[in-house]
Write a structure and sequence with these properties.
Length: 189
Protein backbone atom coordinates (compact mmCIF):
# COMPACT_ATOMS: atom_id res chain seq x y z
CA UNK A 1 0.00 0.00 0.00
CA UNK A 2 2.07 2.83 -1.31
CA UNK A 3 0.31 6.06 -2.12
CA UNK A 4 2.66 8.46 -3.90
CA UNK A 5 0.72 11.34 -5.43
CA UNK A 6 -2.56 12.65 -6.73
CA UNK A 7 -2.74 14.32 -10.13
CA UNK A 8 -3.84 17.98 -10.30
CA UNK A 9 -7.31 16.96 -11.50
CA UNK A 10 -8.29 13.79 -9.71
CA UNK A 11 -11.91 12.68 -9.45
CA UNK A 12 -13.51 10.63 -6.70
CA UNK A 13 -15.76 7.77 -7.84
CA UNK A 14 -18.07 6.31 -5.18
CA UNK A 15 -19.56 3.02 -6.35
CA UNK A 16 -23.00 1.68 -5.38
CA UNK A 17 -23.50 3.26 -1.97
CA UNK A 18 -27.26 3.19 -2.36
CA UNK A 19 -30.27 2.28 -0.24
CA UNK A 20 -30.76 -1.22 -1.60
CA UNK A 21 -27.16 -2.25 -1.02
CA UNK A 22 -25.93 -0.63 2.21
CA UNK A 23 -28.15 -2.83 4.38
CA UNK A 24 -26.80 -6.07 2.90
CA UNK A 25 -24.30 -8.12 4.93
CA UNK A 26 -20.66 -7.20 4.35
CA UNK A 27 -17.19 -8.13 5.56
CA UNK A 28 -16.51 -4.73 7.13
CA UNK A 29 -19.08 -2.59 8.94
CA UNK A 30 -20.99 -0.64 6.32
CA UNK A 31 -21.27 2.34 8.69
CA UNK A 32 -17.48 2.73 8.64
CA UNK A 33 -17.35 2.46 4.84
CA UNK A 34 -20.13 5.04 4.49
CA UNK A 35 -18.42 7.42 6.95
CA UNK A 36 -15.11 7.19 5.08
CA UNK A 37 -16.77 7.64 1.69
CA UNK A 38 -18.53 10.71 3.12
CA UNK A 39 -15.20 12.08 4.36
CA UNK A 40 -13.74 11.61 0.87
CA UNK A 41 -16.68 13.36 -0.83
CA UNK A 42 -16.34 16.33 1.53
CA UNK A 43 -12.57 16.53 0.99
CA UNK A 44 -12.85 16.37 -2.81
CA UNK A 45 -15.55 19.04 -2.83
CA UNK A 46 -13.51 21.24 -0.46
CA UNK A 47 -10.63 21.06 -2.96
CA UNK A 48 -13.03 21.68 -5.87
CA UNK A 49 -12.36 18.32 -7.47
CA UNK A 50 -14.97 16.24 -9.30
CA UNK A 51 -17.13 13.78 -7.35
CA UNK A 52 -18.86 10.98 -9.24
CA UNK A 53 -21.66 9.13 -7.47
CA UNK A 54 -22.52 5.80 -9.10
CA UNK A 55 -25.55 3.64 -8.50
CA UNK A 56 -26.68 0.41 -10.10
CA UNK A 57 -30.21 -0.11 -11.35
CA UNK A 58 -30.01 -3.37 -13.25
CA UNK A 59 -27.67 -6.08 -14.41
CA UNK A 60 -25.94 -7.04 -17.60
CA UNK A 61 -27.84 -9.45 -19.82
CA UNK A 62 -26.58 -12.94 -20.35
CA UNK A 63 -26.71 -16.32 -18.71
CA UNK A 64 -24.89 -17.03 -15.47
CA UNK A 65 -24.70 -20.04 -13.18
CA UNK A 66 -26.19 -18.05 -10.31
CA UNK A 67 -29.85 -17.13 -10.33
CA UNK A 68 -30.67 -13.44 -10.52
CA UNK A 69 -33.57 -11.65 -8.90
CA UNK A 70 -36.47 -11.32 -11.26
CA UNK A 71 -38.65 -8.28 -11.72
CA UNK A 72 -37.95 -4.66 -10.88
CA UNK A 73 -36.00 -3.57 -7.83
CA UNK A 74 -38.10 -2.25 -4.93
CA UNK A 75 -38.96 1.46 -4.91
CA UNK A 76 -35.97 3.51 -3.72
CA UNK A 77 -33.50 0.62 -4.07
CA UNK A 78 -31.15 2.59 -6.36
CA UNK A 79 -31.37 5.87 -4.39
CA UNK A 80 -27.99 7.19 -3.31
CA UNK A 81 -27.61 7.28 0.46
CA UNK A 82 -28.03 10.71 2.09
CA UNK A 83 -24.63 10.49 3.80
CA UNK A 84 -23.02 11.20 0.41
CA UNK A 85 -24.75 14.61 0.46
CA UNK A 86 -25.22 14.73 -3.30
CA UNK A 87 -24.48 18.19 -4.68
CA UNK A 88 -25.75 19.80 -7.88
CA UNK A 89 -22.31 19.73 -9.50
CA UNK A 90 -21.61 16.07 -8.69
CA UNK A 91 -21.65 13.71 -11.65
CA UNK A 92 -24.18 10.94 -11.18
CA UNK A 93 -23.98 7.74 -13.15
CA UNK A 94 -26.56 4.97 -13.20
CA UNK A 95 -25.12 1.72 -14.47
CA UNK A 96 -26.59 -1.61 -15.50
CA UNK A 97 -23.33 -3.58 -15.16
CA UNK A 98 -20.69 -4.10 -12.50
CA UNK A 99 -18.30 -1.42 -13.75
CA UNK A 100 -19.15 2.27 -13.97
CA UNK A 101 -17.46 2.79 -17.35
CA UNK A 102 -19.32 0.14 -19.36
CA UNK A 103 -22.27 1.57 -21.30
CA UNK A 104 -22.19 4.94 -19.51
CA UNK A 105 -20.81 8.39 -20.32
CA UNK A 106 -18.49 8.56 -17.29
CA UNK A 107 -15.29 8.49 -19.35
CA UNK A 108 -16.31 11.36 -21.62
CA UNK A 109 -17.53 13.39 -18.64
CA UNK A 110 -14.20 12.91 -16.85
CA UNK A 111 -12.20 13.75 -19.97
CA UNK A 112 -14.25 16.97 -20.45
CA UNK A 113 -13.10 17.97 -16.96
CA UNK A 114 -9.44 17.10 -17.77
CA UNK A 115 -9.39 14.35 -15.13
CA UNK A 116 -6.30 12.12 -15.33
CA UNK A 117 -6.69 10.16 -12.09
CA UNK A 118 -9.54 8.58 -10.17
CA UNK A 119 -9.88 7.57 -6.53
CA UNK A 120 -12.39 4.76 -6.11
CA UNK A 121 -14.41 3.74 -3.04
CA UNK A 122 -17.66 1.85 -2.44
CA UNK A 123 -19.10 -1.64 -2.77
CA UNK A 124 -18.61 -4.39 -3.60
CA UNK A 125 -14.83 -4.65 -3.59
CA UNK A 126 -14.69 -7.73 -5.84
CA UNK A 127 -17.36 -6.65 -8.32
CA UNK A 128 -18.44 -2.99 -8.68
CA UNK A 129 -15.24 -1.45 -7.29
CA UNK A 130 -12.85 -3.84 -9.03
CA UNK A 131 -14.69 -3.64 -12.36
CA UNK A 132 -14.71 0.15 -12.21
CA UNK A 133 -10.99 0.19 -11.36
CA UNK A 134 -10.18 -2.17 -14.21
CA UNK A 135 -12.17 -0.09 -16.68
CA UNK A 136 -10.61 3.17 -15.48
CA UNK A 137 -7.14 1.68 -15.79
CA UNK A 138 -7.91 0.34 -19.28
CA UNK A 139 -9.19 3.81 -20.27
CA UNK A 140 -5.82 5.31 -19.29
CA UNK A 141 -6.64 6.91 -15.95
CA UNK A 142 -4.26 6.68 -13.00
CA UNK A 143 -6.14 4.69 -10.35
CA UNK A 144 -6.06 4.98 -6.56
CA UNK A 145 -8.16 2.74 -4.33
CA UNK A 146 -9.39 3.86 -0.90
CA UNK A 147 -9.23 0.39 0.60
CA UNK A 148 -10.76 1.28 3.97
CA UNK A 149 -13.74 2.89 2.20
CA UNK A 150 -14.89 -0.31 0.53
CA UNK A 151 -16.27 -3.69 1.49
CA UNK A 152 -17.76 -6.82 0.00
CA UNK A 153 -20.20 -9.48 1.21
CA UNK A 154 -17.48 -12.09 0.63
CA UNK A 155 -14.22 -11.91 2.60
CA UNK A 156 -12.30 -13.91 0.00
CA UNK A 157 -13.35 -11.55 -2.82
CA UNK A 158 -12.47 -8.44 -0.80
CA UNK A 159 -9.08 -9.80 0.26
CA UNK A 160 -8.22 -11.14 -3.21
CA UNK A 161 -8.97 -7.82 -4.93
CA UNK A 162 -6.89 -5.84 -2.44
CA UNK A 163 -3.93 -8.23 -2.39
CA UNK A 164 -3.78 -9.38 -6.00
CA UNK A 165 -5.75 -7.16 -8.38
CA UNK A 166 -5.47 -3.61 -7.07
CA UNK A 167 -1.64 -3.49 -6.99
CA UNK A 168 -1.71 -4.22 -10.74
CA UNK A 169 -4.21 -1.42 -11.45
CA UNK A 170 -2.88 1.44 -9.35
CA UNK A 171 -2.06 2.54 -5.86
CA UNK A 172 -3.97 1.81 -2.68
CA UNK A 173 -4.21 3.75 0.52
CA UNK A 174 -6.39 4.75 3.41
CA UNK A 175 -9.02 7.44 3.33
CA UNK A 176 -6.90 9.57 5.65
CA UNK A 177 -3.79 9.17 3.46
CA UNK A 178 -5.79 10.36 0.44
CA UNK A 179 -7.22 13.32 2.37
CA UNK A 180 -3.70 14.18 3.59
CA UNK A 181 -2.36 14.10 0.01
CA UNK A 182 -5.16 16.45 -1.09
CA UNK A 183 -4.31 18.86 1.74
CA UNK A 184 -0.56 18.72 1.08
CA UNK A 185 -1.10 19.36 -2.61
CA UNK A 186 -3.29 22.37 -1.89
CA UNK A 187 -0.75 23.74 0.59
CA UNK A 188 1.91 23.67 -2.14
CA UNK A 189 -0.30 25.42 -4.70
Amino acid sequence: MALTTLDPITALIVVDLQRGIVDLPSVHPMGDVVARAGALTRAFRRHRLPVVLVNVAGSAPGRTERPRPEGPFPHGWADLIPELDRQADDLTVTKQTWGAFASTDIESNLRQRDVTQVVIAGVATGTGVESTARQAYEAGFNVTLAIDAMTDPRAEAHDYSIANVFPRLGESGSTQAIIDLLAARSAQA
